[in-house]
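Re-run with default settings, no changes from the original entry. Doing this only to confirm the output is reproducible before filing.
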Amino acid sequence: MNVYYGIQEFQKLENAVVTSGTFDGVHLGHRKILNRLNEIAQQNKGESVVISFYPHPRSVISPDNQIVKLLSTLDEKIELLEDAGVNNLLIIPFTREFSELSSEDFIQKILIQTIGTKTLVIGYDHRFGKNREGGFEYLKENQQNYGFEVEEISRQDIENVGVSSSKIRKALQDGDVPSAAHFLGRNYSLSGVIVKGKQLGRTIGFPTANIQVREIAKLIPSQGVYAVNVYYKNEAFGGMLNIGNRPTVDGTFQTIEVNIFDFEKEIYGENLTVEFLQKIRNEQKFNGLDELKGQIFKDKETCLGII
């Protein structure tokens, strides 16, 4: 897949089949659009193009610049779109200036002049341009003037999938990772670098890798203990992961710590990816390390039964 970081990088195509959106998480609803995009491109002997935006538009145009928690980092989204078979990805830096672009300017400057769009595929509720003024009906009425065809993915097709990024975010914030996995079509994951913690896990026989997630917008599931798959240098392991403040040892900030089963390597400074399988309990405060250790033994047995 060709990746372009701005319209100035893009090389205009002869037969571009295009869609646009944030595509956060590249979930099953997005896949419906992408599958149709690729199908048309193959039928017409053209190339599929996804236009996406970074950072998330709502992070820019919200009154207080509140960071939107995302299901996928930019790197993850690129990988997911490539896996979906997209030929070209145009990432447009989303700024306040860009948010003022009218729908007509978006069509002329980006869809026509930059990309050379021949077919545009959009979801039934997709809006674009300043104040979300552009939509399917407007495009359909003017497609002959623009020189490209417009195809809408119907409301029924989208709603039959029954998924949205906001629905997935809520599931993860509720700790319902199986529902999130169902909507995504895969297990939810996060990656980060391993940093040194207080190493208390070693003192009770359960050493943990402390994961520091670099992307502050990445959504972290609700606090608690999870059964997880762990990926390190193309090797897969089982594990149990805790998200929380470690109240038993008077922790003051949230950490993400994973105990990797049958693993003894020192991996400080290296990257790790975890996939969430199931939340097994909420975080709780115990009466000392011995009681905590006893519970962790039970947690491990539970996780081994899930993985």
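The CA atoms of residues 29 and 160 lie 9 Å apart. The domain at 2-163 is CATH 3.40.50.620 (Rossmann fold).
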